[in-house]
Amino acid sequence: MKSIKISRLALCASALVALIFSPATSHARKPSPTPPPPTISASGNWSDCNVVTDTHPVGPNSFLTVSITETLTGTLSGSFIGTEYDFVHPDGSAVFYGSGVFTGSVAGKTGTFRMNYVGTTSANDTFTAHWVIHDGTGDLSNLFGDGTFEGAASSPTTVCAIPFAGTYKGQLWFAGRR
After folding, report:
1. Single pTM value for the model
2. Helix residue ranges per DSSP H, 22-147
3. What count of Cα atoms within 13 Å lies in the side-chain half-sphere of residue 155?
4. Which of 65, 64, 66, 68 shows the shortest CA–CA distance to 49?
5. How confident is the model at residue 10 (pLDDT cuts 50, 70, 90)?
């Protein structure tokens, strides 16, 4: 009887050792990778008013600081207020960089975000630029995106001496932060 108890004890101990040291991953499920956030296609129209706040000659060129007030419709619905820096060549062509804050709504969510852009203007006042959005607040705190806009100078009005208008398109994502 003593040998049967010892055999049962040895069998239980062997099973316990085998369970402890056996690979646990043979039937375990691996976690699924997090799917990427859905992409939102952005498109619409914009119009703005430029006010030159400072100008400096740089050889035959000019360096301008411009205050921008813009209205956007479409996927991005709201207003943009920012500052642009233009390096204008004697033929009227230019390179420019700008940044500012958008306030409004995107896909039914409201808040603000920062937008930066860089582009070129031809001598006939048509231009293209690439934009990036980041650092949102409110419902837009997790919004990121990039795209392009293009446009041309419009006719001056009594409200705005240097108006521009055009279209934009791009891709947006609502994604988690780090």
Report:
1. 0.78
2. none
3. 2
4. 68
5. low
